[in-house]
Amino acid sequence: MQTHASIFNKATLTGLLIIALPLFFAGCAKEKTETKVTKDAKPSTKTVSKTQKDAQSKTIPAKKTPKKKKNKKREKMTYAELSEKVQKCLAKKHIKEAIPYQEEIVSRYADRQDIAKNKLQLAELYFKIKEYAAAREVFDNFSQFYPSDPKAEYAKHKAIKAVFAENLQMDCDQSETEMTVALCKEYLESQHFNTYRKEVVDIKAQCENKLIDKEIYVFNFYMRKHEFDAARNRLNHLKENYLASNESLKPRLLELEHKLLSKDPSSKQHLVAEKATPGADQAIAANNTPVADAKEKDKNYWL
């Protein structure tokens, strides 16, 4: 027979098992749950991170790239804006870029009382980039429209220098040279212009000598062609336009008349009738030039 003690021990053990087993299974279940949660943690973290980014993007506005300002067309700029553009270009020594803005000012604001300074500056810019024809036109326009302006004499002087820079070779068109002489005469005829008088006189003399060389070149051309009437007309042109103001031309004319007589003796009566160069009558009578050394003095005049 079992004793009371053994019966008690079995009962106690059974009770303990009854209590422990539920706790054991509960512990296992909890451990599995925690493991599952740990495995699912990464995806949930990613989801939360993305959500946070979306929230941040909604709350913090993105930086906008500033739009570039469109360049305003010259036609729509004000006088102040155009003037500012001119000064900025000149500060960078971009002369060609400054000219269109200055042209716009002169064109659109011609009625301004101070427009004269813009015209003068425009002419200076043309001159600097060697646009001599445009420079001459604006300088001459300035001196004519603003004769009482302190810069009028300067403008006329610069107009002369501009057209003088365009002079061509003596066997080409000499219209620019003739224009230079005309501008020089206008300057010298003014009693108020004295600052650049000596330089203008020198330029006028250079241009007249160039025109004389051209006439002699054409004279020799006609002589080679035996067109003596045309050659004689060139001599008459030289006498009428240059002899009075250029005494050094006299020996050269005597040499040319002698050359003409040696090829065309019949020109003798025409030269006398047309008032030959003073001193030429003796040369005609003797059929010899009194200035034989003129040819050696400047061989470039003879072909």
List the helices and strands and how they pair.
Layout: H1 4-39, H2 41-59, H3 79-91, H4 95-108, H5 115-128, H6 132-145, H7 152-164, H8 175-189, H9 197-224, H10 228-243, H11 250-263, H12 267-273, H13 280-286, H14 294-297
Question: What can be said about this structure in brief?
Answer:
Helix content is 71%, strand content 0%.
Explain what you see.
The protein has 303 residues and is an all-alpha fold. Among the domains are: 132-223; 226-303, no CATH class. 71% of the residues lie in helices and 0% in strands. It is built from 14 helices and no strands. Helix 5 (115-128) runs antiparallel to helix 6 (132-145) and helix 10 packs antiparallel against helix 11 (250-263). The longest helix is centred in the first third of the chain and has 36 residues, at 4-39. The model is unreliable at 41-46 and 287-303 (pLDDT under 50).
Radius of gyration: 52 Å
Assembly category: single chain
Stretches where pLDDT is under 50 for at least 5 consecutive residues are: 41-46, 287-303
Query: β content, as a range?
Result: under 5%
Helix percent reads over 70%
Distance between the termini: 169 Å
**Strands, total number:** 0
Question: Structural class of the secondary elements?
Answer: mainly alpha
Tell me the series of helices and strands, N- to C-terminal.
HHHHHHHHHHHHHH
Please state the average pLDDT score. 79
What kind of sheet is the major sheet?
A: none
Number of helices: 14
Shape descriptor: elongated
